[in-house]
Specification:
The complex is a heterodimer. Helix content of chain A is 39%, strand content 32%. By secondary structure, chain A is of the alpha/beta class. Chain A has a single domain, classed as STAS domain (Transcription Regulator spoIIAA, 2-Layer Sandwich). Chain B folds into three domains: 422 residues, Growth Hormone, Chain: A; 72 residues, Alpha Horseshoe (Leucine-rich Repeat Variant), CATH 1.25.10; 131 residues, no CATH class. The longest helix of chain B has 53 residues. Classes of the chains: A alpha/beta, B mainly alpha. At the A-B interface, helix 2 and helix 3 of A face helix 14, helix 15, helix 17, helix 18 and helix 23 of B.
Chain lengths: 115, 840
């Protein structure tokens, strides 16, 4: 898994490539990367899942832990461009009730700016 | 340069920030220039009326004023919405200048109806000009700024009163007929000050302008404001009803006092001495409130809070009323009138303005028109009607004074009761003004998502292409837990990913109830469970599997890793007594996070305490942390002692100890709280953030759990001390000449300390109130920050309030540093924690 970071306005975007699995983590976890951004005062986080095929239970845990850390500080964590397959599993597991998911990055960014 | 000099002078008298010096001085002068002429007009009014009509007819004047004010306020509120604010104020001043001049002329001509007309006119003048002044103060400053400077503005008015009173006392015996022309001149001077205020306001627009107030008098939202609208605003709001009732009593009681003192004075002095006496009397009475206002108002309010300050005025009047009821002579007449004047113009005026803080600007504007312009005069009318009764009962003046005192005492008791009610409602109203901006997300996630189920579904989906055994085990696990929902059955029933991918687009658009096409292969869950259980419990199965696992454990390949994952998962589905469970210990030792995941899950299901140390150490690995943490949570209450030992072990990996705080939070019991609190006392700075967050989480999720108040308070004081020291260093590190604003982005360690302080406060004070205040201080508007400070001011106990307010109040960095340094030196709280540290 490779994670690249960029910023648009006050939103930090994580472009994630590969699969978020236990076996694919070599250096820093997604949650640690999110916490690093929170530590420097960033509060709006967008996870770009365009190049993520699937995730395992570890990946779910990382996303939820990142969501909790961000929201506990009054920030927002959202997801964009998730695959349809993954979205369906998110629906079945009720994750869509917690996570804000957008089909396009622009829509997600707009939602941050509107807030 | 001149501004800097002015700031230095004013900052010694009043708590102002740089940039506020000019407007503060202008408002001080404005109030001075409207109260000085009033205190010339007032003795003239009193003297002329007493000479012409006598004290027994005073109630007629009170009543006539009340009736006239009813009509006048209706007229004024209609004019108010049509005319921009600055035009209205200047037009009002011009009207009073012209009429004051004419009154002086008519008095020289000795026109017979003048005493009563002048009485009413003088009351209209003071009501209109005072209301305009206080509305302007509310426009220019937000509530906290006004609270800071209210004593200074009030003292401007009082100083004006002293000046006007002394002037009248001195000139009353020499040129009594020309006093009103002097008042005219002072009113004229105030026009220039008012104009300067509006010029200043225009220049500062954007900094001081409030969104719902425009310089045209709020013609937007308030365009339909009429007398009825103002009345309805008060009527529909319980807090405003209480406020109106208090203001009514604040004016009814002084009406009795005024009448009592005038009756006594009338019987002690000659008519030609009235103007001079009243002039000196009023001036003398105002010297005391001037010093109370400028020197004591802010500190009294700060020290005692709004609740006790509100009680001070009626309690003193109660004592004086008891005195005059017992001895109706000049001593108590002067004492009661003196106390009334001293306190009504200093403390009571200030605290009454502060009671408007928690309501919106729109409500404030409407309520002020009704309460401050109409109701206070109407209240005097009520007082007058009560007094009327005694005018017609034949008795001597001493008995009249005594009976009125008894009635005054009854009204004062009602006033005290209402003050207690309003101070409680004051805090509630502030709370309503603040919105909770976010909740703890962990609670929301836990309530919305079944995390174990979710992870199991993802593991199921992930294992489909990896291991059919693992896939089947996950499926069986779901069946066993009765969590194989119809939606999930449909999701997993597709035979190939291609089909899945092509169908998903259609599926996602479909209604959730028909999410997936029906599948043909249904499994009878009960039969399946029974059969698998029987197979697993067979001795022969256990024997075969044990041999298989033994071989597997010595292998090191990708296949063996998957095999170990399968075994680790399978053990979790067996009885704790099954022989294969013994193999779990070895699997727990595996370094592979994937094997570890299944092993710790199974260990939690089997629940043997012997697994705990191994699982605890897995908290140090970011890849195993989630699973280990969830597993330890499942062990629950019975391992709190063990977890506490690890948490307190300084030799243990810090990451492990941090995560343990989180595990204890998730267990969320009284023992967990006690254990975390114990660690808090140990002053382990690297763990503070996690332990305090854990306690906060427990407080949110289990509000019934008790926290050790004294220990928490000690910790808060320590955190505040650290914050103070860091903040002083931070402010002093900013080079001279740059804008010092410690509220805006703070270094992380300061922000963390602030978070800790508020989380700790939330453990021992109402959690929601503390967090409303914290969140609005962090991310609110200027006004919501002011409300947040006000909420803290009224929620925290004194010793805690004294320490917190310097951190959160909107004061200049220099003042902040000064106050912090002083507190670090003298605060008994810090001395106490220093003593505790020494004894340890």
């Amino acid at each position: 898994m490779v994670i690249n970071t960029r910023e648009k306005g006050d939103v930090v975007i994580f472009d994630i490539e590969g699969e978020i699995r236990r076996s694919d983590i070599s250096d820093l976890t997604l949650h640690q990367l999110v916490k690093d951004q929170l530590d420097v005062g960033k509060r709006n986080i967008l996870l770009n899942f365009q190049d993520v095929e699937f995730i395992d239970s570890f990946g779910v845990g990382e996303i939820l832990a990142s969501y909790i850390s961000t929201h506990n500080l009054g920030g927002k964590l959202k997801i964009a461009k998730i695959s349809k397959k993954l979205y369906l599993v998110f629906q079945v597991t009720m994750l869509t009730k917690v996570l804000e998911i957008f089909d396009q990055e622009e829509n997600a960014l707009d939602s941050f700016f509107k807030e | 340069m001149a501004r800097n000099h002015l700031y230095k002078i004013l900052s010694r008298i009043v708590e102002i920030k740089p940039g506020e010096e000019v407007i503060s001085l202008l408002l001080f002068s404005y109030y001075f220039l409207i109260m000085a002429p009033y205190y010339i007009i007032k003795p003239v009014r009193d003297a002329k009326y007493l000479i012409a009509e006598g004290s027994l007819n005073l109630p007629i004047a009170y009543l006539a004023t009340a009736i006239f004010m009813g009509f006048f306020v209706g007229f004024y509120s209609r004019v108010r919405v049509r005319v921009p604010r600055h035009v209205l104020i200047i037009s009002s001043l011009i009207f009073f200048i012209v009429t004051c001049f004419l009154a002086g002329f008519f008095f020289i001509q000795d026109v017979s109806w003048m005493p009563l007309a002048f009485w009413i006119w003088a009351n209209v003048l003071v009501v209109v000009l005072s209301a305009q002044f206080w509305i302007l103060v509310n426009v220019v400053f937000n509530p906290r700024e006004a609270k800071r400077m209210i004593g200074f503005f009030t003292s401007g008015g009082i100083l004006g009163g002293v000046f006007g009173g002394l002037l009248t006392g001195y000139l009353g015996g020499k040129i009594p007929d020309y006093l009103l022309f002097i008042a005219t001149g002072l009113l004229f001077a105030s026009i220039f000050v008012v104009n300067s205020i509006f010029i200043w306001q225009k220049k500062s627009k954007g900094i001081y302008a409030h969104p719902d107030q425009d310089e045209k008098g709020g013609r937007g939202k308030l365009s339909r404001v009429g007398f009825k609208d103002c009345f309805d605003t008060v009527r529909k709001n319980y807090y405003l009803v209480l406020l109106a009732a208090i203001v009514t009593l604040t004016f009814v009681v002084p009406t009795f006092i005024d009448w009592q003192s005038k009756v006594v004075i009338e019987n002690k002095f000659q008519p030609d001495e009235y103007t001079t006496f009243f002039g000196y009397f009023h001036a003398g009475l105002l010297v005391v409130p001037f010093f109370i206002s400028i020197l004591m108002t802010s500190s009294i309010i700060k020290r005692f809070g709004i609740r006790l300050t509100l009680l001070l005025y009626p309690l003193i009047l109660l004592l004086c009323s008891l005195g005059i009821a017992a001895v109706p002579g000049i001593l108590f007449a002067v004492l009661i009138k003196g106390s009334d004047k001293c306190l009504s113009f200093s403390l009571n005026q200030s605290v009454r303005e502060l009671l408007y803080i928690p309501i919106s600007q729109e409500q404030k504007y409407k309520a002020k028109i009704f309460i401050d312009m109409f109701l206070n005069r109407f209240a005097k009318g009520i007082g007058a009607m009560v007094l009327f009764v005694f005018i017609f009962i034949p008795m001597n003046w001493q008995d009249r004074v005594k009976i009125v005192s008894v009635i005054a005492i009854l009204f004062i008791l009602a006033w005290i009761f209402l003050n207690l009610k309003v101070s409680k409602e004051y805090t509630n109203t502030i709370k309503d003004q603040l919105k909770m901006k976010w909740d703890r997300a962990d609670r929301f996630v836990a309530e919305t998502v079944d995390i174990d189920y979710t992870k199991l579904v993802f593991d199921l989906m992930e294992s489909k292409d990896r291991s059919s055994v693992l896939y089947s085990l996950h499926l069986f696990d779901l069946i066993r837990q009765d969590k194989l929902t119809p939606e999930l059955r449909k999701l997993i029933s597709y035979k190939s990913d291609e089909v899945k991918a092509s169908s998903l687009g259609v599926l996602l658009e479909a209604d959730e109830t028909t999410l997936m096409p029906e599948t043909e292969d249904y499994i009878d869950d009960e039969v399946l469970q029974k059969e698998i259980k029987e197979i697993i419990s067979l001795d022969v199965y256990q024997e075969i599997m044990r041999n298989y696992v033994d071989k597997l454990m010595v292998e090191e390949s990708d296949d063996s890793e998957v095999g170990k994952m399968e075994v680790a998962k399978a053990i979790g589905l067996m009885d704790a007594q099954s022989p294969l469970v013994q193999k779990l210990e070895g699997l727990l030792q595996e370094e592979s996070p994937e094997i570890s995941k299944y092993a710790v899950e199974s260990a939690a299901r089997i629940g043997r305490r012997g697994y705990v140390p191994t699982i605890v150490h897995k908290l140090g690995n970011p890849l195993s942390r989630q699973d280990a943490s969830a597993a330890l949570e499942k062990f629950g209450q019975r391992i709190i002692g063990t977890l506490s030992d690890y948490l307190g072990d300084a030799e243990e990996d810090i990451e492990v100890r941090r995560e343990l705080a989180s595990v204890l939070a998730r267990i969320g019991s009284q023992d967990a709280v006690d254990s975390l609190t114990l660690e808090l006392e140990e002053e382990k700075e690297d763990l503070d953030l996690d332990i305090i967050d854990a306690l906060d989480r427990i407080r949110c999720e289990h509000p019934d759990i008790l926290f050790q108040k004294e220990n928490i308070k000690t910790k808060v004081a320590r955190e505040i001390k650290k914050y103070y020291q860091s903040l002083v260093r931070f402010i002093e590190s900013i080079p001279e000449g740059t804008t010092k604003d410690p509220q805006q982005p703070q270094p992380k360690h300061l922000a963390d300390l602030m978070t800790n302080i508020f989380k700790l406060l939330g453990l021992i004070y109402p959690h929601e109130d503390i967090f409303k205040a914290y969140q609005n201080l962090r991310t609110g508007t200027v006004d919501s920050m002011a409300y947040a400070v006000e909420l803290l001011d009224n929620t925290l106990e004194k010793e805690m309030r004294d320490l917190i307010l310097p951190i959160v109040e909107d004061i200049s960095p220099d003042q902040k540093v000064r106050r912090i340094r002083n507190l670090l030196r003298v605060s008994p709280v810090f001395k106490k924690i220093h003593g505790k540290a020494k004894s340890l």
